[in-house]
Description:
Elements lengths: L21 H13 L3 E4 L6 H14 L3 E6 L6 H13 L3 H13 L2 E3 L6 E3 L7 H12 L1 H9 L3 E6 L4 H4 L3 H9 L6 E7 L2 H9 L10 E4 L5 H14 L5 H14 L3 H17 L8 H25 L3 H11 L7 H7 L3 H14 L3 E4 L2 E4 L2 H10 L2
Parallel strand pairs: 1-6, 1-7, 2-5, 5-6
Antiparallel strand pairs: 3-4, 8-9
Helix pairs in contact: 1-2, 3-4, 3-5, 4-5, 4-6, 10-11, 11-12, 11-13, 12-13, 13-17, 14-16, 14-17
The chain binds adenosine-5'-triphosphate (ATP) and magnesium ion (MG).
Amino acid sequence: MVTSSPLRFDVPVGPQQLIDRREELAELARGAGRRTAIRLAAPRRFGKTSLLHAHVAAMREVGHRAVVVDLSDVGDTAAVLARVAHAYRALDPAAARVVGRATRRAGLTIGPTGLGITVERGPAPAREQLEPALLELLDVPARLHERDGGLCVVCFDEFQDLLQAGTRLDGSLRSVIQHHGDAAAYVYAGSEPSLLRALFTDRERPLFGQAQPLELGPLPEEEATDALVAVLEAEGFDDPDVGAAVDLLVAEMGGHPQRTVLVAHHLLRRLEDADADGRPDPDELVELAVADALRATDDVHRATWRGRPKAEAQVLRLVADGIPPTGADARRLTGMAASTLGDAVERLVDDGQHLVPDGRGWRLVDPLLTLWLRRETA
Ligand SMILES: Nc1ncnc2c1ncn2[C@@H]1O[C@H](COP(=O)(O)OP(=O)(O)OP(=O)(O)O)[C@@H](O)[C@H]1O
Ligand SMILES: [Mg+2]
């Protein structure tokens, strides 16, 4: 769902609320123009889905057909089929007819949300029976192109989950889309950078070398500050203290998109609750907002910390404290060998969710996890 309310931190934001990402959108537009596929990897909550929606909106504005296919948590071929059918039938009435025919032939009815799938007759069809219908659906862009020469921009979100549904589905996809030439331009987004990378850089996989990488980094501080100050102004908070507080919070969140917006949301709550003459100063306001955000995300951090093998948890804690995770201090503090800690660093970096290289060292992706670890494991 795309929302229009200010400072949403729990759902993808609409194109109007998108902060910056101009270069990424330009890159995606260039990719569509050249029909070059793009893979977009970023950690959780970095704004992938929001960016895809903005790209779709921009592409529609210039007259292309464009759609996001949400593949998150697809568990089997039927689920993939339902998600593709749901997305493609909204492209155009002609596409909806192709989708209707393909799903009926497979004996299926797709629910209105694209999540449910009903078998029209007999027992649930096996994967082999569903695959022809899926291939037919995936070819919708080519059918539309034959009719009117138009371009379909197709953005697969959480693309790595496709393999959960079937380890050979990337091969099925490739077999259809390799013929799409001018008919379609694909974007593959995912929040598991290593899995997504493997799909496109492992020579054994069918999509090897089939998409250009595009990284989604932190938000630039100036753009984030300007955007948040504008939102707070629109809510009636437009004095210099508010600007100073936003500056502080943006710097403290280091450009992490969702964390920046989450803390800004708590700042807004604090501003609303404070009476005009007794309002805390900017430092205090940000401290309170960050504490609120930490409370709201406590269970997530606890699960990250507890759910990790011991060496990885220790590496996260060390990096949060600014201690090089394989150095002498780290070895002394943890009683672990450099190789154990080094392996843990490698696994964490490869996973791409919590630890990223930073200059010659590392930093945690989530600034709130950094603060939580400093506090909870001190
Ligand atoms: N460019 C941006 N401008 C404004 N807010 C953003 C931006 N990018 C991310 N956000 C914030 O992050 C939240 C998550 O965004 P979104 O759902 O697009 O991220 P995601 O990477 O798709 O997350 P997930 O990994 O959970 O699927 C949004 O609710 C919003 O608060
Ligand atoms: Mg998403």
